[in-house]
């Protein structure tokens, strides 16, 4: 049991180190923002129109990059950290009950490795490295396999040669955000995830045995939300030129996403 407790402590310490790394990145973003604000004040003192134009262009570009960092931290790391936190809580509960197994700890060590790799990727080039390396199908299958206490059926029939990198990244982040919200607010016992491609579109369905929300309720939540999550979903749906629909049924709920795949779309 001492060995298992040590492993749990190791995982928790690793998680804390990861949080420190994320906080360091966020601190950098904040300091970066302040620096840009200082440059913005400097602009007012610049007399030559050419220098003024160059400085404005630089600041707009840097501000856009800062927003990109914040969005990627939220979209890429947030759902994974939420899942890891839930998994660690279950490990602690099993440890107290004396039913903790080495395989459970090993699974979370591997999941922690995935999260840390994602943090490194975001901090280095803002690209979801594991998604680019593994592909959309394997990344989704890996993510769903690590969600505890929910009976999940995954059916993937995607031809990834039809899915570009931009579509793959945005689709993955939308799915993670939607599923994370379901797990956080709905507490489902059963979920089903389905994704397939045909000649012209990528069709995605997420079913769960919870109350769910309607399209109108989603619009209201997004409108009144102060966070990045729901607004990020809307923004990425626009980028994908996709349709997002929430359907409330008698015994379960469904989310349907239809993403067009133009004939000329090629995987980058």
The percent range for strand residues is: 5-15%
- Which structural class fits the helix and strand makeup? alpha+beta
What's the CATH H-level superfamily name of the largest domain? Histidine kinase-like ATPase, C-terminal domain
Overall radius of gyration: 21 Å
Care to count the β-strands?
Answer: 5
**Number of helical stretches of at least 4 residues:** 8
Order of helices and strands: HHHHHEHEEHHEE
**Shape call:** globular
**Biggest sheet details:** 5 strands, mixed
What is the terminal separation in angstroms?
49 Å
Which CATH class of the largest domain applies here? Alpha Beta
Q: For the largest beta sheet, what order do the strands appear in spatially?
A: 1-2-3-5-4
Poorly predicted regions are none
CATH fold node name of the largest domain: Heat Shock Protein 90
Can you offer a commentary on this structure?
This protein is of the alpha+beta class. The chain contains 8 helices and 5 strands; from the N terminus they run H-H-H-H-H-E-H-E-E-H-H-E-E. A hairpin with a 3-residue loop joins strand 2 and strand 3. The protein has 2 domains: 127 residues; 136 residues, Heat Shock Protein 90. The termini are far apart. A 5-stranded mixed beta sheet has the order 1-2-3-5-4, covered by helices on one side. The model has no long low-confidence stretch (mean pLDDT 78).
Helix and strand topology:
Elements: H1 2-43, H2 49-97, H3 102-125, H4 129-134, H5 136-145, E1 151-157, H6 165-185, E2 190-197, E3 201-208, H7 215-224, H8 229-240, E4 243-248, E5 253-260
Parallel strand pairs: 1-2
Antiparallel strand pairs: 2-3, 3-5, 4-5
């Amino acid at each position: 049991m001492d060995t298992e407790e040590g492993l749990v402590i190791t995982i928790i310490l690793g998680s804390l180190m990861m949080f420190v790394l994320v906080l360091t990145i966020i601190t950098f973003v904040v300091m970066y923002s302040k620096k840009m604000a200082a440059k913005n004040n400097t602009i007012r003192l610049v007399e030559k129109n050419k220098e003024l134009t160059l400085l404005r262009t630089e600041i707009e570009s840097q501000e856009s990059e800062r927003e990109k960092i914040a969005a990627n931290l939220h979209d890429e790391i947030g759902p994974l950290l939420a899942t890891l936190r839930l998994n660690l809580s279950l490990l602690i509960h099993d440890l107290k009950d004396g039913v903790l197994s080495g395989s459970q700890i090993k699974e979370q060590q591997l999941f922690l490795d995935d999260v840390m790799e994602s943090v490194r990727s975001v901090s280095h080039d803002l690209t979801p490295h594991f998604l680019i390396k593994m592909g959309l199908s394997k990344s989704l299958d890996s993510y769903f396999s690590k969600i505890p206490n929910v009976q999940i059926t995954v059916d993937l029939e995607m031809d990834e040669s039809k899915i570009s990198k931009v579509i793959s990244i945005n689709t993955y982040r939308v799915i993670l955000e939607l599923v994370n919200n379901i797990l956080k607010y709905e507490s489902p016992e059963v979920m089903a995830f389905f994704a397939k491609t045909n000649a012209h579109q990528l069709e995605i369905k997420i079913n769960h045995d919870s109350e769910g929300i309607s399209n109108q309720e989603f619009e209201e939540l997004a409108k009144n939300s102060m966070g990045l999550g729901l607004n990020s979903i809307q923004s990425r749906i626009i980028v994908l030129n996709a349709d997002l629909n929430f359907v409330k049924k008698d015994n379960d709920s469904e989310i349907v996403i239809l993403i067009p795949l133009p004939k000329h779309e090629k995987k980058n």
